[in-house]
Amino acid sequence: MKYLKRDDIDPVLWNTCIESNEYYIPYARFEYLDALCNGNWGALVKGRYESVFPLPYRKKWGLIPYVYQPVFCQQLGVFGNPSGLTTNDFIRKIPSFFVRIHLQIHGGFGIPSNSETLPNFIKKPPHHPDQDFNKDALKNLRKLDKLDVGYTQTKDIRMVLKLYHNAWGELANLSWPEDYSSFESACTSMQHQSKIYACVARSKGTILGAALFLKGHKTLYYVCAAPTLEGKKHGI
């Protein structure tokens, strides 16, 4: 196992490894991670890309590197075939020049030591709203049933991000456009490969909201969504 800087990583071998087993998560694709981190990341690589462990980093005071979880990147971790190694084995190999490590890691290869377990919501079809959703969600569904809502795919990523910022940017402590430019580039790179799905909800020509998902093998990964002011009234 060795640590590779971003410029030493082979993008094709990396993505082949990322997609090679059931724990494939599109957040870890080379082009998405690279754009999101502005090229500031490296990785632990076992063998000839048998398994990998991405490490996004920033530098405090421009000098001291630390590992962090990028915004709009829900989770990372070990990908590929670690051949019996656990997440903890990879964590122990993180170079000591990283003074701090904060990551959200999938639990496919063991739960890391000294970690906090967080919920991850996965919904599998078929859907049974009356059984699966709480009262507040059911109330919103009933309200939407009274509207003629149409959902259409869009390629206008910036429009989706602008809606998100208008609705939640202040709460998330994000500034427009500075905090979205890297994410927009990441989405565009995925869009070129048909690895992203963005949709808009409309009623009688009025936009009620928009959502953005990354495409896995047979899964959509929710990244962000937001209502317009009109959409909030209807619980979109």
Which structural category do the helix and sheet elements fall into? alpha+beta
Termini separation: 47 Å
Question: If helices are DSSP runs of H or I spanning 4 or more residues, what is the number of helices?
Answer: 8
Q: Note the quaternary state here.
A: single chain
Order of helices and strands: EHHEEEEHHHEHHEEEH
Strand percentage lies at 15-25%
Q: What Rg do the Cα atoms give? A: 19 Å
Q: What general form does the structure show? A: globular
Overall helicity: 25-40%
Runs in which pLDDT lies below 50 for 5 or more consecutive residues are none
Mean pLDDT level: 94
Biggest sheet features = 5 strands, antiparallel
**How many individual β-strands?**
9
Summarize the structure.
With 236 residues, the chain is an alpha+beta fold. The chain has helices at residues 11-18, 30-36, 87-91, 129-132, 135-145, 157-169, 181-191, 229-234, and strands at residues 2-5, 41-46, 51-60, 64-67, 79-80, 149-153, 196-203, 206-215, 220-227.
